[in-house]
């Protein structure tokens, strides 16, 4: 009987560890997705800024003619 209890405790602990690992993997995937989304937003903002700067440079060249 005692051996069965030990096996049951072991299996319960393994189950808990598996769930902790799954939760950690889910958090990691969510954090990576958030970082990727933030990076894409920053890159889009950078591209807009570069386009504005290029338009300003072009306008200055025309004005200097």
Give descriptors for this structure.
mainly alpha, 65 residues
Q: What this model shows, in words?
A:
Helices cover 97% and strands 0% of the residues. The chain is mostly helical and 65 residues long. The protein has one domain (1-65). It is rod-shaped, with a radius of gyration of 28 Å. The mean pLDDT is 94.
How big is the Rg?
28 Å
Mean pLDDT: 94
Q: How many strands, what sense, and barrel or not for the largest sheet?
A: none
Q: How many strands in all?
A: 0
Q: Note poorly predicted spans.
A: none
Q: What string, H for helix and E for strand, traces the elements in order?
A: H
How helical, in percent, are the residues?
Answer: over 70%
Q: What class do helices, strands and sheet pairing give? A: mainly alpha
Q: How far apart, in Å, are the first and last alpha carbons?
A: 96 Å
Shape field? rod-shaped
Count of runs of 4 or more consecutive helical residues? 1
Number of domains: 1
Portion in beta strands: under 5%
Give a quick rundown of the structure.
With 65 residues, the chain is an all-alpha fold. 97% of the residues lie in helices and 0% in strands.
What's the structural blueprint in terms of helices and strands?
Layout lengths: L1 H63 L1
């Amino acid at each position: 009987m005692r051996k069965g209890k030990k096996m049951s405790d072991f299996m319960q602990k393994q189950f808990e560890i598996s769930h902790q690992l799954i939760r950690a993997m889910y958090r990691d995937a969510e954090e990576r997705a958030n970082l990727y989304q933030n990076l894409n937003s920053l890159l889009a903002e950078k591209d807009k800024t570069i386009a504005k700067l290029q338009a300003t440079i072009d306008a200055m060249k025309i004005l200097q003619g």
